[in-house]
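S.,

Sequence below, as promised.
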Amino acid sequence: MRFVEAGGARLSVIGLGTWQFGSKDWGYGDAYASGETARIVTRALDLGVTLIDTAEVYGRGASERIVGQAIAQRRHEVFLATKVLPILPTAAFVEHHGRMSAQRLAVDHIDLYQVHWPNPVVPLSWQMDGMRRLRESGVVRHVGVSNFSLGRWQAAENDLGGPVLSNQVQYSLAARKPDRDLVPYAQANDRVVIAYSPLAKGLLSGRYDAEHLPTNSARVNDPIFLPTNVTRAAPLIATLREIAAAHDTTAAQVALAWVISHPNVVAIPGASSVEQLEANVAAAELDLTDDELRELTAASDAFAPESGAGAWAQVVKRRVHK
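The prediction came back faster than expected:
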């Protein structure tokens, strides 16, 4: 395992995202939640993974409880991250929900507490005041945000009166927006970008095509899995497979290796099994050449998925017809 050190924190470059734990969106079921999840967490820790990320909204608290139980005997090995859903994020709301998350996780502190989404209606200063209270009381060690623009990330730091360690955003070869400013900002200012959906929810694994589309709601409700977009991704998938063949590895591992090749970036792929977890972790040891990185970036640049209101309208239409 390799690590990123920034802002006084040390995070494994491959972490474990746990949206799937206890959530119906992925369709994995109760047997997965009650058995496989614990094995996944245990194996992750055995392999040197330290960053485990969850959120209060995942399974309405179920993910936090599952993670807490799984790490109970090995808490000291974990950099534990969770998130508050900012429905009405007053300072008191943030503080209360931080304490509730710690209770569900059965821990005395949360290593990284993040605002899950921006809420433009409620002043950001209120949210950061709640974060400050949690940090000063020892419930939270580091403050983070998620899905924030650069300007809003910087505003959060100003309102907190200190560093906001991380910004968790969608980042992959299929979602390159963070390259514009978030990744350079993290690199220049001792911060971290945490990449969620680093495999574009499995699109970059090459498992899907226009005739074989996913069925679970987490993917069906994402425009990236419109048949048009899956077809448009074919050249990018082909490049991933070509480079994977040269390394005797998989397209998914190459896609992960591209993400974590960027300084101050870590990735938190989910895992449906111990085997998938092991494959994800192995990407940390995959060294791509400069030429391969450039080839992947060029293939990504050429991928132009349909997005915006039109794409979302197709998603809604597909759901209605289902």
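DSSP finds 13 helices and ten strands in the chain.

Coffee later?
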